[in-house]
Design a protein that fits this description.
disordered C terminus; alpha+beta; Beta Polymerase, domain 2; globular; 5 strands
Length: 201
C-alpha cells in the first residue's frame, strides 16, 4: 500500500538529489534548461515524505514527450500519462508493491503556468516557495505541523493530502512574492553541480 509517511529530515537527501540529478542530466541533458531540488526534502531540517522531488525545466514539452519519456523510463521512472495539467509532466521512481517511492520528477516547459496553485510561472514559483521556507524556519515548522496532521488524516489518499495543502501554499506564496519583489528566481545559490542553465533561453 502506498501510504503517506512523514519522516524527520535526513541529511543524506541533498546527496541523493545530486546523484540522481547527474543521471537525469546524462540521460536528457540536451533538452534541459534548468534542474533543481525542491519540495520539503530540499529544506534543511524540515520533516518530509522520504521522496526526492526534482524540478526539470525544458524548452518544449512536445519534444520532451518524444525524447525525455523513454530516457527517464530507462532510469526506472514511471510516467503518469493521466496528469490533468497539460503544462506538467510527472514521473515516479519506485511504486508499491514493487518498492517504495524514492524520487519524483516534475518536468515543465520554461515559463509555463502553474494550473493548480497560482497560475504563475511554475518553475519560479516552486523555487520561490522552497527558498521562502529555507529563509524562514518558523514557517517551515508550521508547514511541517500541517503535513503531519494531513498525513494522519489522509494516510493513503495522496490527492486529498496534496489538495488540502493548497490554501496554505497560496498564502505563503503571497508573502514570498511580497518579500522578493525585485529578486531573481532563487534567493539562494543553486545546489552545486545541479544547475544547468542555458544562455539562449
Amino acid at each position: 500500500m502506498d501510504e503517506i509517511e512523514i519522516v524527520s529530515y535526513d541529511p543524506r537527501w541533498p546527496a541523493l538529489f545530486v546523484a540522481e540529478a547527474a543521471r537525469i542530466h546524462a540521460a536528457v541533458g540536451g533538452q534541459l534548461v534548468a534542474l533543481e531540488h525542491f519540495g520539503s526534502t530540499a529544506v534543511p531540517g524540515l520533516s518530509a515524505k522520504p521522496v526526492i522531488d526534482i524540478l526539470v525545466a525544458v524548452r518544449s514539452l512536445v519534444q520532451a514527450r518524444q525524447e525525455a519519456v523513454p530516457a527517464l523510463e530507462a532510469l526506472g521512472y514511471s510516467y503518469w500519462r493521466d496528469n490533468p495539467d497539460p503544462h506538467h509532466m510527472f514521473f515516479v521512481k519506485g511504486l508499491p508493491p514493487h518498492g517504495p517511492r524514492t524520487h519524483h520528477v516534475h518536468l515543465v516547459e520554461v515559463g509555463s503556468p502553474d494550473a493548480r496553485l497560482t497560475g504563475e510561472d511554475t518553475f519560479r514559483d516552486r523555487l520561490l516557495f522552497r527558498d521562502y521556507l529555507r529563509a524562514h524556519p518558523e514557517e517551515a515548522r508550521r508547514y511541517e505541523a500541517l503535513k503531519r496532521d494531513l498525513a494522519a488524516r489522509f494516510t493513503t489518499d495522496r490527492e486529498a493530502y496534496t489538495d488540502s495543502k493548497t490554501d496554505y501554499v497560496r498564502s505563503v506564496m503571497v508573502r514570498a512574492r511580497r518579500e522578493t519583489k525585485t529578486r531573481k528566481t532563487s534567493t539562494q545559490k543553486p545546489d552545486k553541480f545541479t544547475w544547468f542553465p542555458r544562455e539562449d533561453v
